[in-house]
Amino acid sequence: QFPFGRRLPCDIYWHGVSFHDSNIFSGQVNKFPGMTETVRKITLSRAMRTMRDLFPLEYNFYPRSWILPEELPLFVAEVRTMKDSNPSWKPTFIVKPDGGCQGDGIYLIKDPSDIRLTGSIQSRPAVVQEYICKPLLVDKLKFDIRLYVLLKSLEPLEIYIAKDGLSRFCTEPYQEPTLKNLHQVFMHLTNYSLNIHSGNFVHSASANTGSKRTFSSILCRLSSRGADVKKLWSDIISLVIKTIIALTPELKVYYQSDIPAGKPGPTCFQILGFDILLMKDLKPVLLEVNANPSMRIEHEQELSPGVFENVPSPVDEKVKVAVIRDTLRLMDPQKKKRKD
């Protein structure tokens, strides 16, 4: 580790959070300039909406979204219109702060008037989305999938998707949202960093039990129930590719301003975390894209009040070690030299 930067040239630079080094003139950096901004909830929602306007059938995998506070009147008006045309429609919406992560500040509402219009929404913009009320359940629990995607280059556009990911489970049996259970985060929100605080959280040594499992173990279960797992994978691949295509124009602008063509500079690659929810009919829905997915392969365990130790997590290790190993193999600068 080089906390103050390294001035001797390297083949691969591995930055912690974001691209922040203008003194690198060659080699490869594991972050794209501007990626953190590009995948924020508001920017992502805008990009997806632009694409949906152009290609409505191709971009129907992202929940309908509105940006707060600027689109609050539009949100209220659209919901009212939809309710008038279909009185039996009883929607639920999820409000997510733009810069929030790990479930911070997320809440569910039944009516636009429930949005917390305190000072915070003015200073802290958010996205409000239609909540998926009929997710696929496993063991009566809601879960999401964290898939790891390597964006190897922008020109040409090269994308790799890891064959396995993590399935992160809620810790209370799922029920459709009602006014009574809207606040039960352990039932509705799949964020690991929230559910870890639930008394029902199970750290498992096996890939197919507990509150965090491998995605491949879920696919095995679905396949044994007769589900078309091949089609599911093809839908997920399509979702990933279309999402990255939607983000590419903005990423290219950042890239060209930080690393202008014709000037010496590094090339970039990045591992992204795609959070995907499966609906009851196995249709994948994109929840969000994470520019900085956690690569930790252990969790903290409290031995006594205030005393923690790190315990290996076999599920994280199985998935994440493979992701980093294969990324380094794909980016290996020696490989090209050997080929030549």
TrEMBL record:
<keyword id="KW-0067">ATP-binding</keyword>
<protein>
    <submittedName>
        <fullName>TTL11 polyglutamylase</fullName>
    </submittedName>
</protein>
<dbReference type="GO" id="GO:0070740">
    <property type="term" value="F:tubulin-glutamic acid ligase activity"/>
</dbReference>
<dbReference type="GO" id="GO:0036064">
    <property type="term" value="C:ciliary basal body"/>
</dbReference>
<dbReference type="GO" id="GO:0005524">
    <property type="term" value="F:ATP binding"/>
</dbReference>
<keyword id="KW-0547">Nucleotide-binding</keyword>
<dbReference type="Pfam" id="PF03133">
    <property type="entry name" value="TTL"/>
</dbReference>
<dbReference type="GO" id="GO:0015631">
    <property type="term" value="F:tubulin binding"/>
</dbReference>
<dbReference type="InterPro" id="IPR004344">
    <property type="entry name" value="TTL/TTLL_fam"/>
</dbReference>
<dbReference type="GO" id="GO:0000226">
    <property type="term" value="P:microtubule cytoskeleton organization"/>
</dbReference>
<keyword id="KW-0436">Ligase</keyword>
